[in-house]
């Protein structure tokens, strides 16, 4: 009696093998050519410039409509009342006369901070604009109708040709403005070359209050008495790539195991619980292969974007190299000591401000952190 021989591969296995090559060779190259960090990225400066221009026009249109909906007098009264009382987090926006007036980067930044402050209920937040140009300009004059503005002190006439020293001076002066006019636990300092992501303030407050200054111990949120120096809100691109480290290996293992488990459960449901064990293992291996390939081909920066689903998923770590300052949070209680140390040293092209700021970690023996993924994005560079 002849027994019918069963095929070596099930129809689902054959389909998964075929689909894998279709996705890797056709689908991903088609959809990832514009993804800067993917393996299939193809540089097209003209197209990228058009895309940036369209995105900026969209943001400008949105911010104009937002300000039209707000009564200037009511908005100014609202924000002055905020800075008149103790707050958890004071956002100080460093405003400088723009090179391109039509970009409205400062307006986009301030409007997004305003939205976040109005939407935050758990923590008390306030905003102050610090004019580092020290002379009024049109965009700032318009914003001054809606938000409180302070003028930084000008004592940098002899430093006009030392841009790094000016950066340090603006940093120090805007922090002093925040300390002088508002009683706050933390100061978030943001340069007007970035725009925050939607909902960034909720993540900032969660990270500093429940990840850095507090931690979960046996299910209880306990206060961490260890002081810290700063938290960068922008993660450099060089930190986001896959490299040989425990963190990257752990991320890859987590993704591959998630893929294996997902495929195992999915095909167990499709084919029933009577399927042979080696076939289930094969499906799990396909899931691991799919997720591993997607992670490497698409690029870690895009995989990291999945952390935006919840504030608890954001990663906080000590940066391995100095980070250029664009946006950071500082505890108010350490600022007098930090400002005193910064006033003792000078910056130059050989000793830039961001390296000096990073060196304060060793000088003051306090840790500095960066959050991942970034909570702000660059829209222009100066």
From TrEMBL:
Keywords annotated in UniProt: Membrane, Transmembrane, Transmembrane helix
Membrane-crossing segments per the record: 12-31, 252-271, 283-303
GO terms assigned for molecular function: glycosyltransferase activity
GO biological process: GPI anchor biosynthetic process
InterPro entries for this protein: PGAP4
Superkingdom assignment: Eukaryota
GO CC annotations, alphabetized: Golgi membrane
Protein known as: Transmembrane protein
Organism taxonomic ancestry: Eukaryota, Metazoa, Ecdysozoa, Arthropoda, Crustacea
